[in-house]
Amino acid sequence: MILSRVSLGFLGLFFMAASILLIFLTLLGGARNSTPLNEIYFLQAATGNIPGAPSISRWTFWNVCGVTNNGRNDCGKTHPDYPFDPPSHRTFDTTVNVPPEFIGTKHYFLTSRFMFPFIIIGLFFAVCSLFTGLLSMCTRIASYLSGFLAWLALTFQGITTCLMTAVFVQGRNAFNKNGQNSQLGVKAFSFMWTATACLFLSCLMYCLGGAVGRKDNSGYSGRKERRRGFFSSQRSNSVRSQKKERENNSYA
């Protein structure tokens, strides 16, 4: 076959490694002011009319950042699982000129907060699938195990990506409705959705690798049985011929 268990296992490893890289880039975006991490953010909004806020704000997993003259993130102290909640004390600590959609609700806070644990859980299963995927090119069981772990990673990654899309698209619309120009972070959204697609392809390749291995083994067993049957029949015919010859000699 054109696609053997080895080639399918390698493709599964390739897509899994690509998804892990993209997830790490998105997760670490804003953690340091170094390239390429200072180019990754979920949402950018014009917040110059909000007291104490920078002229342009960018939200990441770790903080809300300003923007440098060359268009890069200018992030300060990091806080893991940083919530998207503009009026709270964690961000601007005011409701002045903050879009009314953010005031008096926990929707944005809770939705953005759940993103962080889900992406960590998905990343854990993805890394486990990457290691077991090294054996998927050798055994059918490892292929199915890697596919199962990839499916778990895909589930949590899909939840994270959907939460991210929902909360920051709503946030962008709220800022734009309030006359504050805002836009989504192209890199973060591209990385997250591409990682989700890569996880799906990796899961598919691993499962196909296990199925192809089973078919090949069945075919090999069938050929082995046919060979054994052919030689067995030859041996039986030879024994019968010798027995018949001995009987004829005894009558003579």
Rg over alpha carbons: 30 Å
**Widest sheet: strand ordering:** 4-3-2-1-5
CATH architecture: Up-down Bundle
Strand count, sense and barrel status of the largest sheet are: 5 strands, antiparallel
Name of the level-1 CATH class: Mainly Alpha
Q: How far apart lie the N and C ends?
A: 59 Å
Number of domains: 1
Mean pLDDT: 87
Description:
- With 252 residues, this protein is an alpha+beta fold.
- Strand 2 and strand 3 form a beta hairpin.
- The chain is built from four helices and five strands, in the order H-E-E-E-E-H-H-E-H.
- Helix 1 runs antiparallel to helix 2 and helix 2 (107-136) packs antiparallel against helix 3.
- It has a five-stranded antiparallel beta sheet with strand order 4-3-2-1-5, with helices on one face.
- The protein is elongated.
- It has one domain: Butyryl-CoA Dehydrogenase, subunit A, domain 3.
